[in-house]
Design goal:
Elements lengths: L5 H32 L11 H31 L5 H34 L2 H25 L35
Helix pairs in contact: 1-2, 1-3, 2-3, 3-4
């Protein structure tokens, strides 16, 4: 079978990461847009000081998440055609991880803002905490537990001895990556 070159592997890893970032970027942009319009809604003056503080946390976390999730595009512009794909993939991986972390803060803060507005505060805290745990289960715990999982899907096989991270893994179509 064909072997994927190291250059092809880095290009594929970058393309895969960009696909992931497109999904995350859409989510964070929608949340950020909603948060930007919220102070101009008729009910916002009815919020209390705590709710406005939570709003500011959610807004700033969404803005920071958007910056991190979009930053690989700017980084790519600077490194374009300079043969620095490995550095770009590593940077993009770190920025995506940071962006998702901040997106978690923005999401949980947004849930807290809304639930505190309509429910008693203790209930809002519990629901927001459960929301955070829910996200952590699906965004961190399950991927971590299954990071060595091989399900036989030849289209997405991971490097058998590696960590399967953003800068590792095997090629498409059942090709395995050379050891690095």
């Amino acid at each position: 079978m064909d072997r994927e070159t190291e250059k092809e592997r880095w290009q594929r890893n970058f393309s895969d990461l960009l696909q992931e970032l497109r999904v995350a970027q859409t989510g964070v942009q929608i949340l950020f847009a909603f948060l930007l319009t919220l102070p101009f809604s008729s009910g916002f003056p009815d919020t209390n000081g705590f709710q406005r503080d939570v709003y500011v946390v959610a807004l700033l976390a969404a803005a920071a998440a958007a910056a991190l999730i979009i930053s690989p595009v700017a980084f790519h512009r600077v490194l374009f055609r300079r043969g620095r794909k490995p550095e770009l993939v590593r940077f993009a991986h770190r920025m995506a991880s940071g962006g998702l972390s901040l997106m978690l803060v923005a999401m949980v803060s947004s849930v807290l803002l809304v639930t505190d507005f309509i429910l008693p505060r203790p209930v809002a805290f519990v629901l927001s905490g459960l929301t955070g745990v829910w996200f952590l289960i699906f965004w961190a715990a399950l991927p971590f537990v299954h990071r060595g999982w091989l399900d036989g899907d030849e289209e997405d096989d991971e490097d058998e001895g590696g960590d399967g991270g953003a800068d590792g893994g095997a090629g498409r179509g059942g090709r395995s990556a050379p050891a690095t």
